[in-house]
Amino acid sequence: MDSGKFVLRNCLYLELPFSVRIAKFIPNKNWFVCGSDDKFIRVYDYNTSEKVKDFEAHEDFIRCLAVHPTSPFVLSSSDDKLIKLWDWEKDWVCTRIFEGHSHYVMQTAFNPKDINTFASASLDGTVKVWNIDSSAEKFTWEAHSKGINCVNYFMEDDKLYLITGSDDYTAKVWDDESKSCLKILEGHTQNVTAACIHPQLPIIITASEDETVRIWDASTYRLDDTLNYGLERVWGIAYKKVFIQTSERVKSVDFHPTEPWILASLYSGTVCIWNYHSQTIEKSFKVTDSPVRTAKFIPNKNWFVCGSDDKFIRVYDYKTSEKVKDFEAHEDFIRCLAVHPASPFVLSSSDDKLIKLWDWEKDWVCTRIFEGHSHYVMQTAFSPKDINTFASASLDGTVKVWNIDSSTEKLTWEAHSKGINCVNYFMVDDKLYLITGSDDYTAKVWDDETKSCMKILEGHTQNVTAACIHPELPIIITVSEDETVRIWDASTYRLEDTLNYGLERVWGIAYKKGSNEVAFGCDKGSVLVKIGSS
C-alpha cells in the first residue's frame, strides 16, 4: 500500500516506513511476508501479530514475492534487477541469486508442472525461465515491445501456458512448449499491470492503469466484460474460490444461517443440500417426480419445506432425513414459499392465484387464504419493518400488500406492464423500499411510503426472474432468463458488473446475512460467489 500501512483483518496495523508493494500468506506457518520500498522483507505471525523476522533483502525497491508451493522458499524480485531465493528454515538466508535482467524485475511465478522452475517478468521486455537449483537462466522470451509488469503460469488439459501483461497496453498468452504467442489481448488504454487465468472459471482476467478490469473468454479470447469500480488504477488481482455445483435445473436456492449449506430445489423433483466448504452433496431428497420450484430452511426446527408442481407441500427433517409432513396445498403449481421470521407460519403462493398461510404448530392447518390476484402468484415476501405484513408479486402485473391477520389486501401497485416474477423488501436508513422484477425485462425500486418508483433498472434482454438488495453490501442484484447476473450500485443505480457463469438461465438468488456470499440457481446448476473482500 502506498501509505506504508499494511492492514490485516481490518484490525492489525503495521506502520512500515515505506510503500509496501507486495504481501503473501505463508499459511502453513501462520505467517505473511511483505516487501517494501525500504528494501526490507518482513515476516509476521498473523495469529499473534508478532514480527518473526525483518532483514534488508535488496539494494532497491522490492517488487514481488513468490512463495514456493512445497519447500520453505520465498523468491524476491527488485528494481536492483536481481531475483533472490530465501530459505526460512535457515533463518531466511539467501541461498541463490538469479542475475540476467537489464531492468526492474516486476514479478516471478512458479511453474505448476515443475515447481522448481519459475518465470520472471522485467521492464526490459523479456520473460526469463529459471530453475531454483541453478543461477543460469534456462530460456529468454523477447515477449513485448515494452516493459513487462506481470507473468503467470496456467495449465489446460495437461499443457502449460503463460500469460504476460505489458506497458505496450496488451496481454499475451504463450504456449510454453512451442514458445509461441497464441493470442494478443488488446483493448486496454494504459499499462497492463496484472493478468491471470481463473482456476475455477473459463476466464482470463487483466487489470490496468486505465482503471479497468477486463474479463476474457479463455477459449475464444473474446472480451466478455469491462469493469470499473471507481477506485482508479488497478494494480493487482486476487480471486475468491467460486463453488459451482452442476445439476438439473435449479429453481430456487436458500442459505442455512449457521451451516455451510445451500438448499437447492430442482426441476427433477429433488431437493439437495450442498456443502460449499467441502464442495459435496450433504444430503439429497427425491421428494416427487414433479418439478420442485421452491424450498426453504426452517432452521429452528431442523426442517426444510418445499413446494412442487404436484400441488403438494412437503416438510423434511434434514438431520434425520425423515419426512415430517406432506399435504396437498393448492389446486395448481406451487411457485413460492416464505417462512415467517418469528411465528410458526409459512406462506405459499400458486398458479391457482391464491396465497395461503399455514401454521406448523397446528399440524400445518391453513389459517388464512388471500385472494385477489388475477394471474399466477410468483412470489411473496415479508416486510422487515412490520413482519406481519407481506407483499405478493403476480403475472397480472401487480404487487399487492397484505397483513396476515386479514384476507383483505391493503394496497395494490400497478407496478409493471407485464407479469412480475419477484418482489423483495429492503431497508435503508430506517426507510422501507421494495424491488420488483418483471417479464418487461426491467427491475424497479419502489418507495414504500410514497408508493413511487425510484428507479427503473434496464439492461436485461429477457425476463427478470429474481432481484434483491444485499444486506451487507451496497449492491442490488438482478438475475434473468438472459443467462446473466447484474450487479448495480444501490446508491447511484449504476450498472457495476454483468456476470455469466455459463449455466444458462438464472432463476433464483440467495444471500447469507453477515456474509458477502451470494448463491444463484440456474438451468445447469448452482453457483456460489463471494463479492468484495472477506
Structural overview:
With 534 residues, the protein is mainly β. The protein has a domain at 5-227: 7 Propeller (Methylamine Dehydrogenase, Chain H). It is built from no helices and 50 strands.
Topology:
Blueprint: E1 5-8, E2 12-15, E3 20-26, E4 31-36, E5 40-45, E6 51-56, E7 62-67, E8 73-78, E9 82-87, E10 93-99, E11 105-110, E12 117-122, E13 126-131, E14 139-142, E15 148-156, E16 159-166, E17 171-175, E18 180-185, E19 192-197, E20 203-208, E21 213-217, E22 223-227, E23 243-246, E24 250-255, E25 261-266, E26 270-275, E27 280-286, E28 292-298, E29 303-308, E30 312-317, E31 323-328, E32 334-339, E33 345-350, E34 354-359, E35 365-371, E36 377-382, E37 389-394, E38 398-403, E39 411-414, E40 420-428, E41 431-438, E42 443-447, E43 453-457, E44 464-469, E45 475-480, E46 485-489, E47 495-499, E48 506-511, E49 517-522, E50 525-530
Antiparallel strand pairs: 1-2, 3-4, 4-5, 5-6, 7-8, 8-9, 9-10, 11-12, 12-13, 13-14, 15-16, 16-17, 17-18, 19-20, 20-21, 21-22, 23-50, 24-25, 25-26, 26-27, 28-29, 29-30, 30-31, 32-33, 33-34, 34-35, 36-37, 37-38, 38-39, 40-41, 41-42, 42-43, 44-45, 45-46, 46-47, 48-49, 49-50
Give a summary of the structure in a few sentences:
By secondary structure, this protein is mainly β. It has no helices and 50 strands.
